[in-house]
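Hi,

Apologies if this is the wrong queue. I'm a grad student, and the batch job for histidine kinase from Flavisphingopyxis soli produced an output file that my downstream script rejects. I'm not sure whether the problem is my script or the file. Here is the sequence I used:
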Amino acid sequence: MGVDVLNGVLILGLLFALWLVLAGVTIVRGLSMQRRAALTAAQSTKLSALIDAAPVLPLVVREDMRIECPDRLSQWLGLDGAPRYLDDLSPGGGDGASGLSRDDLSALSDHVTAVRRSAGRFSQLVGVAGSHRVLRVSGAPAPARIGGQGAVLLWFADVTEGMADQIEIEAERDRAVTAFESLSALVEAAPFPMWFRDRGLGLRLVNRAYVAATDSDDARAIVAAGTELVEPVAGISAAEAAGQAQAGGAIVQRAIPVTISGARRMMRVVDVPVGRAGVAGFAIDIQDAEDARANFRRFAKAQRDLLDRLSSAVAQFGPDKTLRFANQPLSRLFGLDPAALKEHAEFARFLDRLHSQGRTPEVRDYPAWRSERVGWFNSAEVNEESWQLSDGTHLRTVAQPTPDGGLLLIFEDRTEQVQLASARDTLLRVRTATVDNLFEAIAVFAADGKLQLWNRRFRQVWEIDEAVLAGHPRLDDLLKQLADRLMRPAQAPLIQEIIRAATGERRQRAGKIAFRDGRHFEFAAVPLPDGNALLTMLDVSDSRRIEQALRDRNDALEDADRVKSAFLSKMSYELRTPLTSIAGFAEMLATGYAGELPAAAVDYVGAIVDSVELLGRHIDNVLDLSQSEAGTLPIERVPTNLTEVAQAAATAAIKLAQDNDVELAVELAPSLGAIQGDPRRLRQVLDHLLANAIRYTAAQRSGDARVLLHGDGNMKRARLVISDNGPGIARDKQNRVFDVVSRRSAGGEDGNTGLGLPLSRQLVEGHGGTLSLVSEPGEGTMVTVELPRA
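Support response: The file is valid. Your script probably expects a header line. Output copied below for reference.
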């Protein structure tokens, strides 16, 4: 029994020890879990603080549409309590004063459903009712550990300020677009050319006035072609001038001549750098201003020159009453030092100087007299008076107020009046003698039509008595008496009208008249400064006879040319009929129709066929040339690939080049392109030109003879060039290479008709193109064919 008790106590002790061990382990694990819970709580607090401070707030939408979000999001949405379901984001069905609107919530729900189905992402802008707050919602599938299966994680970001900035930017953009459109309309409507260049100084924009100034109708074509309004001046192009403005960052102005609509106009061209965008420019027509300025300068200079050359003394005072100009007679008349006149003395001091030298009238009250003369500046009328000087000099003084407030003084020395009158009489006699001995017939008519002056030649031409002219008849009465002397009396009113235009309209006009006796005259009516008209008549009878003889000779040559063309055309047609028969019989013999021919006969028949073919080509050339000269040569207008035509002609000419030991080179650029033309006629042109170049080059050179066929073009024209290194053509013979007769005589040596170049030019001109020839003796010859695209 005692042993049993002892065993029981031992078991209890072991159980108690085991319990103590388990309790210790439990306490240690509890303390560890407590520490981990405290750390997790601290981390959770930090995360909550970060979420509350973050500009983006999360919202988790579970599969049953329950949501979890921070309280701060409820504040953004203006909600009173924390929402539990997605529909709680719009209290009152979207009609309340907070939360999301019904449309925004519906769209958000659709996006959430789409994310669950496709696991995609979305972004949406929503507004908060009752405020200006705008939120951007971005959604994506939520991790399984956050919301479970089918949860969606939404991020709300407050973009109110960004949207305000965006609205302001869009408003600013709208204002800028409106301003740009207004500015563009203003530039387009500007009456003067305007343009804009990019940073590379290439044209990018031109206005309507620019298009009109360049005689075009398409601004895009101008920009594409880079058509400049302003020509290079002093080696500086328009783009270079704009580059100077761009490099210097300052406006560059130039006054240069520009051709607009065929007229030369002075324009002020202004290049304005517009920062990094490029350079803007405009051109203002200053031709009228330049003309006015030049006319004013010429007028002022002419006035000064005129005043300086007057025999009368002249002094000009400005609005400030200072002396601006004094001519030489003034210093001589008053004995003044020219250097003193350049001091620009005031008018009162000028009178004082004259008074001190005794060159003013004797008056009782000189100060009052001087003050009265100073009042001339304020007068609106011309003041004229006589000054009797103490030395017996008599001056006629005229004071003319000028429009600018100044005064013009003119002093005329009457003491020399007799001498001037005598000189005038002498001058009139000299003039009369000079006019009376002129070869031309001259007459002067007054504004009222009366004859004032005539010379001896005028009286002889019209065969009229001196007594009739001495009566100074009127022009209309005089022409009534002289009309029967004209070949066409109806021309008499023409002379009267021309003289009336010279006297009344101050316009110079000219004409021609013929007399019944065969004389021809050229006449002109010239307005004179005194209001009269000068009628001059020049006998051109001899020149008219020579002109008529030359005209008759030209008509005869043209008739001969037409007869020649008609003869060639008729003979060509007449020769074709027997030639066709010869060709037919020769081909029959060659094919054995008349039986088998001997070997020698076969060669003879082949030579006949070749000769008939050559003669046929010659006749075709003559016919084509005759039709071309008569304007009846038919030319088709179909799309023609010039590259194919040129290549075919070169291929056909290779055998001829090889037979003559000539190197034939072909260079056809892709820009050669196509035109509207007749491919057969163009092939005919190239065949003639290549054959001509090969034959003449081979005849004069050996071993290094070379012919080049080159082709290129641009948007407007296509160009074909055939050049050789042959002997060339002398300058005195180049003008005759396109003449049929000259070419025939030159080409007879090698069997060529010599019609190739003349016919080629006719065919090219029939296409609206040109054929030109450049040659240097010893250097070779180059023939250029240019054909228009349209």
